[in-house]
Structures are given as C-alpha cells and as structure tokens.
Amino acid sequence: MFTANGYYSQLQGNYLFSEIAKRVAVFAAAHPEADIIRMGIGDVTRPLVPAVISAMHRAVDEMGCAETFHGYGPDFGYDFLRSAIVNRDYRSRGIDISMDEVFVSDGAKCDVGNIQELFSADCRVAVMDPVYPVYVDTNVMSGRGGRFANGAYEKIVYMPASADNGFVPELPKDRVDVMYLCFPNNPTGMTLSRAQLKTLVDYAIKNRVLILYDSAYEAYIQEPDAPHSIYEVEGAKECAIEFRSMSKTAGFTGTRCAYTVVPKTLRYADSFGNEVSLNAMWGRRVATKFNGVSYITQRGAEAAYLDEGYREILGVVADYMENARIIRESLSRVGYTVYGGVNAPYIWLKTPGGDSWAFFDELLATHHIVGTPGAGFGRAGEGYFRMTAFATRENTLRAMQRVCGG
Amino acid sequence: MFTANGYYSQLQGNYLFSEIAKRVAVFAAAHPEADIIRMGIGDVTRPLVPAVISAMHRAVDEMGCAETFHGYGPDFGYDFLRSAIVNRDYRSRGIDISMDEVFVSDGAKCDVGNIQELFSADCRVAVMDPVYPVYVDTNVMSGRGGRFANGAYEKIVYMPASADNGFVPELPKDRVDVMYLCFPNNPTGMTLSRAQLKTLVDYAIKNRVLILYDSAYEAYIQEPDAPHSIYEVEGAKECAIEFRSMSKTAGFTGTRCAYTVVPKTLRYADSFGNEVSLNAMWGRRVATKFNGVSYITQRGAEAAYLDEGYREILGVVADYMENARIIRESLSRVGYTVYGGVNAPYIWLKTPGGDSWAFFDELLATHHIVGTPGAGFGRAGEGYFRMTAFATRENTLRAMQRVCGG
Predict the structure, then answer these.
(1) Taking the CB of residue A55, how many other CB atoms lie within 10 A of it?
(2) Choosing among B3, B58, B63, which should be mutated to test the A contact, i.e. which has the most A CBs within 10 A?
(3) Is the terminal CB of chain A with fewer CB neighbours within 10 Å at N or C?
(4) Cβ separation B138–A288 shorter than 8 A
(5) CA separation (Å) from B353 to A370, B281, B350, B375, B382?
(6) According to the model, what pLDDT value does residue B14 have?
(7) What residue spans of A334-374 are helical by DSSP H?
(8) Is A307 exposed, middle or buried (0-12, 13-18, 19+ CB in 10 A)?
(9) Quick one: closest CA in B to A58, which residue?
C-alpha cells in the first residue's frame, strides 16, 4: 500500500508570498482605483540585453536546421558556457576553479533544494535568521526540520543576524553539519567582509561543516571589500559549495539559467563509512535526474558573460542600484533606519513600532505600496521590512514621493 | 560533522551509455577510417519544425522589450501551454484532465526522478525488466534499492517482460507500493492493449499501488488499440501519475520541455497517518524546488500543440517511423527475430547466440554500427539488442545495407 512522505505535513501553510498576494488582492478588490506599486517579490523588470537577445535568435535558427541542430547537450552544461563562467567569475578574480567543478542548471533554487540528496538523513542544518524560506522548507520536506513550534522548526539551528550583531550570523552553539549562508543577503541586503567570512570558513573547517553559499546577488556588490565568491577566502574549497544565478545578474528570472560549483577537494565520509567526493556524487545526481539546460538558453547565458553582453548587464545592474540609492536615501531623509541597498538590491528598514505585518498593512493602505514584512523571513526578521530595487525607475520615484513627500 | 548519503555508493559504476561510449572510442581509435553509424542512444536528429522556430523567435523578441518582457513565470507552467496540452493530449481523446492537474517541467527524466520525494522512505518499488535505468538508479540513490547482487538490487521487485510472456510485465508476487510502467516501452518498443493495461490498473487499485506511467513515446503509436494515455483506462485517475515529454514528440531533447499529470483524485495516507493529496504535495514540491520552464521554450512547446506545428511534428514522427519500418523489415528479411518498431521508435531484436554484449562488439567490428545491448537494461534484457529509428534516413539505409546486403 502506497504511503506518502509525511514530512510535507510539517510545512507551514501560509507561504510568505501567497499571504502577501492574498492581502494585496483583498485591498485591491476594496479599492479598485488604487494604483498599487509592487516592491515586494524580487522579480526584475528590465528586458534581456541586446547581446543576449541576438545570441538567442542565432541559437533558435541553429535549432531549425538539420546541420546545426542540437539534441541532448552535455549533462553539466556546454563547455562554451562553463569556460565563459570560469573565466569571468573566477579566473578574473584570481580564483582557481576548473570547468569540471561547474554544473550549469536551470535555477539556483532547484540546486539549493536538490543538493540535499547528497546529505545523510541525520545531517543537522543551520540557517541564518532572517532566512530565504526555501532553505528551510526544503529541509522540512526531507525530514530535517522537525515540528514547528514558537515560530521555528525544532531540528533546525537558527543563526540570528540583526542590527544588534551587525548582521553577522551568530555561530551555532550546538553541533551542526550543514550551514546555509547567503551573501549579499536576502532579505537584509547586507554583506560580510572577507575577514568576517573567513571566521565562518574557519569554523566550518574546524568542525567539518559543509557550507552552502548562495551568492545569487554578487553582481550587485559595489564596495571592494565584500567578497563576490566564498572561494576568495582561503580554505573555502575544502568546505563550501557555491550557488550562482543569472536571474538577478542578467535578468534571467523567466529564462532560467544558473550554476553550482562543487570543488573536487570536497571529500567526506558517507553514512556507510566510505570516503566520497561530493563533486562525483553531484555529477551522478545531475546525470541521473537532469538533462541539461536548453541550448538556446545556454547561448544566451554565454553572451551575458562575453564582453559586449557583460557591459550591457552591468548597465542594468547599475540602474537597479540607482533605485536602491534613491530608496535608501529617501527613507533615511525622513527618519527611517535603513540597512542594505549598497551591495544588494534589497533595502531592509526598521519598522517604526516593530510589528512588520502591521507596517505592511499600513504601507499598503496609506501609500498603496507592497513590500515584504520581515517576520515572513523568520523570528529575527520581526521589526524589519524589505523593499526591492527591481521596480522601474518611474515607480521607484513615485513610491518614494508617496512615502517621503516631495 | 558532515556525512554524505551512503546510498550513492550502492549504484553500479558502469552506466550503460558510458560503457558503450568507451567501447566505441576504443574501436574508433583503432580504426580511424571506420565510418561509424550510431543507432544506440535515443537522441533525435531532425531539427525543430518551422512553427516552433517562429514561435521561439517571437518569444525572444518579447524578452528583449520592457513592455513584453517576462520575469518569473507561473511555477506550474503558463496557462497558454497547459490548456494547449489538455486540449490536444486529453480532451481530444475524451479524457477528463484539468489544467491544474498538469505540471510543466524541463524534462520527464527530472520529474520521474524527483517524484520520489512524495514517497515515504519505506515504499517498495517494482520496475519492468528490461528497464530504463533511471527508474532504478534514482531509487537506489534514495535508499530504496538496497545492495546489488546477481544483476539485481535486493529491495527492488522486477517484473520480467520478454518474448516468453508477450512483453506483458508479470505481476509482482510480493507486496509493492509503487510500480513504474513505460509504454510504448523503452527499450523493447512494445505496447500493451487497453485490456492488458486494464489488468495492471485493476491490480494497482486493489492493492493501493501507485503507478508511475511514462508515456514519453506515445506520439509514435500507429495502431488504434494501443492506449496513448493510462487515463484511457477506467480507474487510472485513482492510481496513476503520467509523465509526458516533448523530447521525442517534438524534437525537444536539447530544448527541454515535458509535463507530469497528477490527478486530484490521488489521495493516500502519509507516514504520519494524515490523508494527503499527491496533487497538492507535488504542487508544493514544484513551487519550492523549481522556478518554471523558460518562457521562450514554453512558447515553442505551445506551437507544437497548435494545429500548424502539430501537423509538422506528425510529419517528423512519420519519417522516423519509416526508418523503423525499414529496420524491422530489413532485419526480418535476413532472418532476425524482431519486436517493436510498430508503435515506437525502438526495434528490439533477438541476438543470435544470446550474448548481447558479444553482439554489440561484433556489430561494431563487422559493420561499424552502434546499438545498445539488452543486458544493459537488466537481466531480462539479455539475449536482445536495441536499435533506434532516430538516425537520418540515409544512415538508416546505409546501416541496413551493411547488415542485410542489397
């Protein structure tokens, strides 16, 4: 008799963005005349850049012609894309990552979720608090979360990061086996310095903890001291997997391309006592349960890494970061305490009064602006509120005009 | 201390197609003048049809323009594609499947692997023998395989299907909870009649077994009695999930689009005793670990479902099936016993002498043709050999000329 995985029933029902969508729908129904500006979900608004568009047109033409048609591609991605990635994102920064440590995929969210298949069942997981909900939910689904009580899952170790500790995650007091880190951080928009990241890497090496490093927002870093890759820190190739995405870098949220770096130096014991390579295991996982990314998409992604396309996407990033500056400075000027927005497209503001859902409701009712209440990202997110810099310039300016006056 | 999933170490090292590639490479190095014809791996050779190409060019243009740009799409696929799928593949055959039972993905192989996340840890799995290796390997990786001994995994139940039983899988003698079925079958190229499939559905309902029905090759069915969908059989919506792919239907092996049907009527107890809906669980899995298929790809897939594109892809399928006829009739004429190739692009021939790897080596050495030895698909595949109809017409004719003479 078939029995379903019971751990799904431990997931909390109201996924943050569904709850937001519901509240916005209720408000919009009651106020059909309201011109709502959305600065909640982190989706981009600028189109793909011309170099990417041209490359994809050429690839579509190739697919229509027997001589240049592409069937199954290499499971881990075409060499043309893997080498473009290695050159642009690693070699140019003096980091030694080889092509066979790079696995091209259709999304960092997929990889961040699927990577758990490499863990033994009893691995204990630590996450930052506030946290991108996917790290937590995927672990709950596989039984690593446990019951939910008092705003937290009992088996998960939370590392609070708030203004009180300068947004540097507190090291776990209990044993953990896996640690999720995200820098530049979603939702706080804050980064670590190399020295701060080094402390975490040293802790991981000492305790044989595997770090899952999500740097989906690295393209937004403006300050020189913030590391773009965890591999800029000595020792990280012995303890860390890195996830990168073209979603926010090149506007690929609807085009789907990302990659994961699994260094060959990552070797651990498995649950039967064999010494295993995580690079080989991930390769086997990808080859068995995935069939590669669309050829057309990979040609588009390649174009974003070559000189012309790269210049174009840097222009788009600069444009979003100008939105971030406008939001940060506007809110500061009228007395809000704001964090982030310097090396990330997210602004994390302290909510006057503390209650972040109350602030959400008030901002929507008074100014017709949608943001994301910090409480939705975990207990340490209460008292904060996230705004994104991904709206159009016009909407960003209008939103700030409403909140802060002329 | 991080510990890796030990079950990966139970996987057998030599993945079938890697072993084939290795033997071909050795032969090619020793005989650089040999003109090798590949009829091994099931990849297509014909380009995407014109209607799909036009639709993708239009979609690329939309992505380059702020007004028509698409960011994150709906997790389960755009309604334009889900409704095209429902109309073409189900309503047109009188099958009642609704749009919210269809989940668009980037590949049937991904879905077939990932669907296991909905199973409790102790589910017992049955597969056909010979079998598409992915069904087995993905279960081994999650601990449902057990140790490998005497050509089989100890925890997996094998259902032999050979000429002795007319390629109808033998019902399991032991308790099973999940049953993988693939029709038209890979590798045998054989199909079941509706009545034969009904016997399996009745068994599943009686024993509360969940059927995973892979019909990636349904577009190749030529005979009216072979069901295209398991839902043509009464009761199947109470016991079956169906996987479909555009890879072999529309030549999307390098473009990546597929879908999975999870009926809302699939309700089971979970491991904590709650009654759960597999449709809701799969929806949660997809929303948490996946971000949808590229907008461009989905517009291409839609075009393959609308009238013009559909006519074009039927033409391509007919062309491959003419290859299948040529292979089947040529081999029969010179005395081979052949199966399949009538409702599927695979020909399954009895190897003279029995040993399928010996036949592989001989065919490569004598005629410079690559096929797939049946033993690679499981114990019941020994004594058989698979050839595919996906080569070009010219190569198919040349291969048959070499084997069968003029």
Answers:
(1) 23
(2) B3
(3) C
(4) yes
(5) 72, 49, 9, 13, 11
(6) 66
(7) 356-367
(8) exposed
(9) B57
Cα A337 → chain centroid: 24
Min Cα distance A2 → chain B (Å) is 4
Cβ contacts of A383 within 8 Å, gap of 6 or more:
A162, A350, A351, A354, A355, A356, A374
According to DSSP, the residues that pair with A159 across neighbouring strands are A128
The answer to whether the CB atoms of A120 and B271 lie below 8 A apart is no
From A138, which residue of chain B is nearest by alpha-carbon distance? B288
Contact A43 B118 (CB under 8 A): no
C-alpha angle B204-B210-B214 in degrees, rounded to nearest 5:
105
Q: Which residue has the tokens 């609308």?
A: B306
- Residues of B within 8 A of A296 (CB-CB) are 56, 255, 294, 296-297
Cα–Cα distance, B116 to A26 (Å, whole number)? 37
Q: Which two tokens stand for residue B175?
A: 């308790």
**Where are the strands (E) in B250-345, listed by range?**
258-261, 267-269, 275-277, 338-340
pLDDT of A263 higher than 80: yes
Kindly provide the residue ranges of all beta strands, DSSP E only, lying in A91-205, ordered along the sequence: 102-105, 125-129, 148-149, 152-153, 157-160, 178-182
Query: pLDDT tens-digit profile of B345-403?
Result: 999 999 998 899 999 999 999 999 999 999 999 999 999 999 999 999 999 999 999 99
A405 confidence band (pLDDT: 50, 70, 90): confident
Rg (CA), chain A: 21
Distance CA B126, CA B124 (A): 7
| Total number of residues shown for chain B | 406
Of A6, A273, A296, the CB nearest to B270: A6
Tell me whether strands B240-245 and B258-261 are parallel, antiparallel or unpaired: antiparallel
Q: Tokens representing B387?
A: 């050839």
- Condensed to tens digits (0 to 9), the pLDDT of residues B246-258 reads 999 999 999 999 9
Asked whether B227 and B68 are in contact (CB, 8 A), the reply is no
Which tokens in the block code for residue A404? 């802060």
Residue A406 has pLDDT above 70, yes or no: no
B189: CB partners within 8 A, 6+ apart? B324, B339, B340, B341, B342, B343, B344, B345, B346, B347, B348, B386
Q: Is the peptide bond before A373 cis (omega within 30 degrees of 0)?
A: no
Average pLDDT over residues B197-216: 98
* B104, B76 Cβ separation under 8 angstroms: yes
pLDDT 10s digits, A293-321 = 999 999 999 999 999 999 999 999 999 99
Q: At what angle do helices A307-333 and A295-305 cross, to 10 degrees?
A: 70
Least confident range of A379-383, B9-13, B210-214 = B9-13
Instruction: Nearest by CB to A47, from B66, B107, B117: name it.
Output: B66
Whole-structure pTM value: 0.97
Residue A122: helix, strand or coil by DSSP? coil
Hey, is B104 helix, strand or coil? strand
> Between the CA atoms of A181, A183, A189 and A192, what dihedral angle is there, to the nearest 10 degrees?
100
Q: Strands A102-105 and B275-277: what pairing?
A: unpaired
Instruction: Report percent pLDDT > 90 for chain A.
Output: 95
- Residue type at position B230: I
Work out the pLDDT band at A41, boundaries 50, 70, 90. confident
- 8 Å CB contact between B194 and B233: yes
List of chain B residues whose C-beta atoms are within 8 Å of the C-beta of residue A52: 64
Which of A106, A118, A288 is nearest residue B134 as measured by Cβ atoms? A288
